[in-house]
Write a structure and sequence with these properties.
By secondary structure, this protein is of the alpha/beta class. It has 2 domains: about 160 residues, Rossmann fold (3-Layer(aba) Sandwich), CATH 3.40.50.1100; about 220 residues, Rossmann fold. The chain contains 16 helices and 14 strands. The strands form 4 sheets. Strands 3-4-14-9-10-13 form a 6-stranded mixed β-sheet, with helices on both faces. Helix 11 links the parallel strand 9 and strand 10. The longest helix has 17 residues. Bound molecules: pyridoxal-5'-phosphate (PLP). The site of pyridoxal-5'-phosphate has 19 residues, from helix 11 and helix 15. The beta subunit is responsible for the synthesis of L-tryptophan from indole and L-serine. Its cofactor is pyridoxal 5'-phosphate. It catalyses: (1S,2R)-1-C-(indol-3-yl)glycerol 3-phosphate + L-serine = D-glyceraldehyde 3-phosphate + L-tryptophan + H2O. This is Tryptophan synthase beta chain. InterPro entries: Trp_synth_b_CS, Trp_synth_beta, Trp_synth_beta/beta-like, TrpB-like_PALP, TrpB-like_PALP_sf.
């Protein structure tokens, strides 16, 4: 077999998916009022033009390297592998990025795009505060105003992230209406955005929302897989047999998967949170149990009631509890290129502790779902085979919660 280490040829940053209307098969698109469609089409046009310029590409590449610390390494988890038995487990270390997770990749891309488009303010909502911190970081660096809407309940719960956002200089808007959580923060941020969509930029935090966001966020995150594929080939002389990542909205997963979609011999697995169990109503396994519908301006698998309203979702990892999912994942599921499975809260906590104690790496609870699946799966495979796990973030943010949950004091 001839080894292909030529990543230029494998460049997947601008795959033909989606079509010009933002459809990935029957998913994605723009389920929005006409005036908003005009705004989204503007962003799409600007993105397609600006992202192709050498100036933009060089600026982003430079920040990825010198600011984020890319490329993030691939690490062979030797003691974890020995502990489990079976396939070798490798980790793509997105947890080592500046700010501790993959989100900085697309936040930098979005902040930079907003700046190049001459926007005056970047807006977003945040739930647990991860997207807010990454975006506030990117905006501080790029030098553009940042406004984050956050439910009062979440503000109470997520003190460290709230303080970080304030230190980073963003305007934090507490949301006191309704449930005072993420859902209402979305509405509040969006209302602010609609006051002046010409001058404001709404930065979506995953591969969701109306076109062009699922495409744009994917393109910014695809650096993960582009690096990983080349790194794996160079160090192992072959591709991994399987790659896997956790799926909330799906940005870290599509970021890893994109470069490998054409490699038929590589099995690709997305891992959703099954929470307290798929048979309960306490999970967020959208692709596993959802049905097609519309949410937040696009079409995708949804966890919804008979009237099409989003059902309450749950995960031990707050970054994974979203009732929709990125449209490209829905498409990849339907065509069978990617398989989606799930891991429970209990499996996640076990993986969190096991990885910490075999490798000295404390993973984010989100990422621990992918580690949990790899631990389950490695046993079924031979020691000559390998699984590459996207370690999307570090667990610093989750430590208090885990200590309380497991009573480790
Ligand atoms: C936000 C987050 C996720 C979930 O988001 P995706 O868009 O599905 O990647 C996963 N891991 C970490 C560490 C996160 O912060």
């Amino acid at each position: 077999m001839e080894l292909d280490t030529n990543t230029e040829e494998q460049s997947v940053e601008f795959l033909p998916m989606p079509d010009s209307q933002g459809n990935f098969g029957e998913y994605g698109g723009q389920v929005i009022p006409p005036e908003l469609k005009a705004v989204m089409d503007d962003i799409n046009e600007a993105y397609l033009e600006i992202s192709q310029t050498e100036a933009f590409q060089n600026e982003l590449a430079d920040l990825f390297k010198h600011y984020v610390g890319r490329p993030s390494p691939i690490f062979f988890a030797k003691r974890l592998t020995e502990n489990i038995g079976g396939a070798k487990i490798y980790l793509k270390r997105e947890d080592l990025n500046h700010t501790g997770a993959h989100k900085i990749n697309h936040c930098l891309g979005e902040a930079l795009l907003a700046k190049h488009m001459g926007k005056t303010k970047v807006l977003a909502e945040t739930g647990a505060g991860q997207h807010g911190v990454a975006l506030a970081t990117a905006c501080a660096l790029v030098g553009i105003d940042c406004e984050i809407h956050m439910g009062e309940i979440d503000i109470e719960k997520e003190k460290p992230n709230v303080i970080k956002m304030k230190i980073l200089g963003c305007k934090l808007v507490p949301v006191s209406r309704g449930t005072r959580t993420l859902k209402d923060a979305v509405d509040s941020a969006f209302e602010e955005y609609l006051k002046n969509p010409k001058d404001f930029f709404y930065a979506i935090g995953s591969v969701v929302g109306p076109h062009p966001f699922p495409m744009m966020v994917r393109d910014f995150q695809s650096i993960i897989g582009t690096e990983a594929r080349q790194q794996f080939l160079e160090s192992q002389g072959k591709l991994p047999d399987m790659i896997t990542a956790c799926v909330g909205g799906g940005s870290n997963a599509i970021g890893l998967f994109t470069a490998f979609l054409g490699d038929e011999e590589v099995k690709i697995m997305g891992v959703e949170p099954s929470g307290l169990g798929l048979e309960t109503d306490k999970h967020a396994a959208t692709l596993t149990l959802g049905t097609p519908g519309a949410i937040h301006g696009f079409k995708c698998y949804n966890l919804q009631d008979d009237e099409g309203n989003p059902l309450p979702v749950y995960s031990i990892a707050s970054g994974l509890d979203y009732p929709g999912v990125g449209p490209q994942h829905c498409y990849l599921k339907d065509i069978g290129r990617v398989e989606y499975t799930s891991a429970t809260d209990a499996e996640c906590l076990d993986a969190f502790m096991t990885l910490s104690r075999t490798e000295g790496i404390i993973p984010a609870l989100e990422s621990a779902h992918a580690v949990a699946f790899a631990m389950r799966q490695a046993k079924e495979m031979s020691p000559e085979q390998s699984i590459l796990v996207n370690l999307s973030g570090r667990g610093d943010k989750d430590m208090d919660f885990v200590i309380e949950k497991l009573g480790l004091e």
